[in-house]
Amino acid sequence: MKNKIEPQVTLVGAGPGDPDLLTIKGAKALAEANVVLYDALANEELLSYAPKKALRIFVGKRKGCHEYTQDEINQLIVDNALTYGNVVRLKGGDPFIFGRGSEEIEFVESFGIPTFVIPGISSSIAVPASQGISLTKRGVSESFWVITGTTSARKLSSDVALAAQSTATVVILMGMSKLDQIVALFQKESKGEMPVAIIQNGTTPQEKVGIGTVDTIQKIVAEKNLSSPAIIVIGEVVGDGKKNVAFYNELKSHHNKVLVYGKE
């Protein structure tokens, strides 16, 4: 007599890119998986934690290239759980920070399938930290905003305009295609000299960094050929970052000189 299939789904945050930043609990969940459905932003090295016999299904989405629609992904999770039992849904960063994790959990639970969530280290915090950028700092920044640069309607979030009016550090995910609009909003608030960092493929060997100001960052992006996936950090803390302070002091003395650094 065959063992009864006991379906369950565990949502695991894969962290910001460096495979060593997966949580121990996430690694334990992968070790028990029968199926792993993983995103484009989840480092494929993490699949080595899963048993060799486990199915590995890529369901990643990049701009202009979707392996599956979100509805198809939701159904794949359910179908594999009902067929094979223990499914791990591996998502980049933290699955509840612009990861549509709650949508997937709600869909799975509508079938009566038990679900579990293992948080991941969010790229919105970890990637700036990896560059020595503290999102909050006494006397400099009392808070920070984490905003999606592109809404489901493919438009810039209206929260960016509100954040530009504040003194908070602003972290924008999925915002590279809207960089011109973001710059314009901060310039409207007379923040052209506000420090900006753009970090592409943060915490990975492919990491590239451009640092400048609101007024210079577009030129820097063009010269460094920076693109998605990248995180945009805007705020005085960028200039105070331990890796950036010497750079920014020189930048302030030479406003017409564009300086960039980063791993090629």
Commentary on this structure:
This is uroporphyrinogen-III C-methyltransferase. Pathway: Porphyrin-containing compound metabolism; siroheme biosynthesis; precorrin-2 from uroporphyrinogen III: step 1/1. GO terms for molecular function: uroporphyrin-III C-methyltransferase activity. Pfam families: TP_methylase (PF00590). Belongs to the precorrin methyltransferase family. The protein is of the alpha/beta class and 264 residues long. The protein folds into two domains: 111 residues, Cobalt-precorrin-4 Transmethylase, domain 1, CATH 3.40.1010.10; 124 residues, Tetrapyrrole methylase, C-terminal domain (Methyltransferase, Cobalt-precorrin-4 Transmethylase, Domain 2). It is built from nine helices and twelve strands. The chain has a five-stranded parallel sheet with strand order 3-2-6-1-7, sandwiched between helices. It has a five-stranded mixed sheet with strand order 8-9-12-10-11, with helices on both faces. Helix 2 packs across helix 3. The N and C termini lie far apart (57 Å). The C terminus is likely disordered.
Strands of the largest sheet, in order across it? 3-2-6-1-7
Percent helix, as a range, is: 25-40%
Largest sheet: 5 strands, parallel
Beta percentage is 15-25%
Total discrete domains = 2
Measured distance between first and last alpha carbons: 57 Å
Q: What gyration radius follows from the Cα positions, in whole Å? A: 20 Å
Provide a count of the helices.
9
Instruction: Decide which structural class fits the backbone.
Output: alpha/beta
CATH fold-level name of the largest domain: Methyltransferase, Cobalt-precorrin-4 Transmethylase, Domain 2
CATH class of the largest domain: Alpha Beta
- The averaged pLDDT comes out at 90
CATH architecture of the largest domain: 2-Layer Sandwich
- The CATH homologous superfamily of the largest domain corresponds to Tetrapyrrole methylase, C-terminal domain
Ranges where pLDDT stays below 50 over 5 or more residues in a row are: 252-264
Please trace the helix and strand order, writing H or E for each element: EHEEEEHEHEHEHEHEEHEHH
Shape from CA axes? elongated
The total beta strand count reads 12
InterPro entries: 4pyrrol_Mease, 4pyrrol_Methylase_sf, 4pyrrole_Mease_sub1, 4pyrrole_Mease_sub2, CobA/CysG_C, Siro_Cobalamin_biosynth, Uropor_MeTrfase_CS
Pathway: Porphyrin-containing compound metabolism; siroheme biosynthesis; precorrin-2 from uroporphyrinogen III: step 1/1
Protein name: uroporphyrinogen-III C-methyltransferase
EC number: 2.1.1.107
